[in-house]
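forwarding from the other thread:

> can someone predict this with magnesium ion?

sure thing
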Amino acid sequence: MGDPFVEVRGLSRRFGEARVLDAVDLELRRGELVAIVGRSGSGKSTLLAVLGGLDRGFEGRVTVDGVDLATLGDSALARFRNHRVGLVFQAGHLREDMTVAENVELPALVGDARVPDLERRVRDVLARVGLPGRDHDRPGTLSGGQRQRVAVARALLLDPPLVLADEPTGSLDADSGNDVIALLREASEDPERRACVVVVTHDPALAACASRVLRLVDGKLVEATTERPSAGAESAA
Ligand SMILES: Nc1ncnc2c1ncn2[C@@H]1O[C@H](COP(=O)(O)OP(=O)(O)OP(=O)(O)O)[C@@H](O)[C@H]1O
Ligand SMILES: [Mg+2]
């Protein structure tokens, strides 16, 4: 199966006296879709921020694709974040002063390396998320579900090997939610991409697609059994 793509050892994150993550160990492989669950305030977003290189105030070791994140300087970390990680935030986070296409392009504009065929990539990824032809519209003219698709398109633009999504279906109706789930599954299952996808979710439909479900309890990650519907349940992978 090869080495884990993400390796976390003894990860702790404290805010003042509160120890939100407490010596967490975690191994993630390419091609898996892992769901993180846990009650509000249990540290789910905090964990994603560490994995995505957004937060460096942690203790312990976090290695992604063999690179110890603590060894990266600010610009190397920014490049890692924008080129190797696809991030879907809890509430979409689109720039309202930019068009849909410009929002999607953002990660490609960080660093000096030019991304070849950027325009075509943007068109392709918008078509993939079901928003063809909306390139020049402003986010304000889109529905909540469509905005979330733009956020997913941005995360998938550069086919990152690590995709981190925080409640990506949280504000969506069942149909839009299922479309977003299908996109995340495709990123992990497509043999060309085999992204390692980590989703924080309360959505049983999304958790049911996961190869593993992990629960954050008292700063620790524990295996959770997926609550699958009894009728027509898939067998565990
Ligand atoms: N920058 C920060 N400074 C201080 N405390 C923080 C900071 N970020 C998070 N926390 C605290 O850490 C705890 C975990 O927050 P986190 O956002 O990770 O929770 P969560 O599991 O994502 O919750 P939710 O399901 O509500 O999104 C909370 O008690 C929060 O107040
Ligand atoms: Mg959160």
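The beta strands are 6-15, 18-28, 33-37, 59-64, 67-68, 85-88, 162-166, 196-200, 212-217, 220-224. thats all i got for now
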